[in-house]
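Extended Data, panel c. Modelled sequence:
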Amino acid sequence: MEEEKTSKTPSKLIPIKQFYTEAEASVYVAKLQDSGIRSLLQNETAYTVLPVGEQGIRLFVLEEDVELAQDIIYQMDTNMRTEPDESFHDADHEDIEYQRKLKMGNSNNRLILIAIIITILLLAYVYYLGTSGQTIR
């Protein structure tokens, strides 16, 4: 009889994390849901519309799920803090040639641009001399 009473008592909601963006909160809720943990966000809409105060968006889980939820959240926090593995390698001959071609392309473009500017300036000067009534000798 006592077992029936304890099984029907409602579980308490325990706050376990606080967020300042709805997007981040949603990621955590989805991960907890995938693990079979029901959760609830408080101030989600209000804080998104008017982000004022220190409360932010709070994540609640049932009292019996707190330990498992904290483990999952700890793993997620740790994964978000670690730097992504980047693959660095020494430049090989192919990489060096590629960089040289990029640099050569840039210098050729600059030369073409300079030649165009000089040509326009010369044409403008000739036009100016022609309209001012002077002749070129």
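Helices lie at 2-8, 22-34, 44-49, 66-81, 93-131. This feature is highlighted in the accompanying rendering.
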